[in-house]
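Handout, page 2. Input:
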Amino acid sequence: MIDISKAISALDSNAQFVVTGHPSNEAEYKANVKFISGADENGSAIFKDTQDFTWSEVSAKQTELQAEYDAEEWK
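Output:
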Protein backbone atom coordinates (compact mmCIF):
# COMPACT_ATOMS: atom_id res chain seq x y z
CA MET A 1 0.00 0.00 0.00
CA ILE A 2 1.31 3.42 -0.97
CA ASP A 3 1.13 5.70 2.06
CA ILE A 4 0.46 9.43 2.33
CA SER A 5 4.17 10.21 2.83
CA LYS A 6 5.09 8.71 -0.53
CA ALA A 7 2.29 10.62 -2.24
CA ILE A 8 3.38 13.95 -0.73
CA SER A 9 7.01 13.27 -1.63
CA ALA A 10 5.96 12.46 -5.20
CA LEU A 11 4.18 15.81 -5.40
CA ASP A 12 7.24 17.65 -4.03
CA SER A 13 10.45 15.80 -3.31
CA ASN A 14 11.65 18.72 -1.16
CA ALA A 15 8.54 18.90 1.02
CA GLN A 16 9.20 18.72 4.74
CA PHE A 17 6.34 17.34 6.77
CA VAL A 18 5.28 15.11 9.63
CA VAL A 19 2.52 12.51 9.36
CA THR A 20 0.87 11.05 12.44
CA GLY A 21 -1.03 7.82 11.95
CA HIS A 22 -2.49 6.82 8.60
CA PRO A 23 -4.86 9.55 7.35
CA SER A 24 -7.61 8.12 5.18
CA ASN A 25 -9.89 11.11 4.72
CA GLU A 26 -9.73 14.91 4.56
CA ALA A 27 -10.39 15.50 8.26
CA GLU A 28 -7.64 13.07 9.30
CA TYR A 29 -5.28 14.58 6.72
CA LYS A 30 -5.84 18.10 8.07
CA ALA A 31 -5.40 16.94 11.66
CA ASN A 32 -2.45 14.59 11.18
CA VAL A 33 -0.25 16.08 8.45
CA LYS A 34 1.82 19.13 9.33
CA PHE A 35 4.14 20.87 6.89
CA ILE A 36 7.37 22.40 8.18
CA SER A 37 8.41 25.93 7.26
CA GLY A 38 11.73 25.98 9.10
CA ALA A 39 13.31 25.62 12.51
CA ASP A 40 13.56 27.86 15.54
CA GLU A 41 16.79 28.79 17.34
CA ASN A 42 16.67 25.48 19.23
CA GLY A 43 16.32 23.42 16.07
CA SER A 44 12.68 22.55 16.70
CA ALA A 45 10.38 22.46 13.70
CA ILE A 46 8.16 25.42 12.93
CA PHE A 47 4.93 24.20 11.40
CA LYS A 48 2.91 26.06 8.79
CA ASP A 49 -0.68 27.06 9.49
CA THR A 50 -1.72 25.71 6.08
CA GLN A 51 -1.27 22.53 4.09
CA ASP A 52 1.01 22.59 1.04
CA PHE A 53 -1.36 20.23 -0.80
CA THR A 54 -5.08 19.57 -0.56
CA TRP A 55 -6.46 16.19 0.42
CA SER A 56 -7.75 15.83 -3.15
CA GLU A 57 -4.26 16.33 -4.60
CA VAL A 58 -2.62 13.93 -2.17
CA SER A 59 -5.26 11.21 -2.42
CA ALA A 60 -5.23 11.43 -6.24
CA LYS A 61 -1.43 11.04 -6.27
CA GLN A 62 -1.70 8.16 -3.80
CA THR A 63 -4.22 6.41 -6.07
CA GLU A 64 -2.02 7.01 -9.11
CA LEU A 65 1.09 5.62 -7.39
CA GLN A 66 -0.85 2.60 -6.11
CA ALA A 67 -2.10 1.84 -9.63
CA GLU A 68 1.47 2.05 -10.97
CA TYR A 69 2.69 -0.24 -8.19
CA ASP A 70 -0.11 -2.74 -8.78
CA ALA A 71 0.61 -2.80 -12.52
CA GLU A 72 4.26 -3.65 -11.85
CA GLU A 73 3.68 -6.06 -8.98
CA TRP A 74 3.32 -9.10 -11.23
CA LYS A 75 6.94 -8.70 -12.39
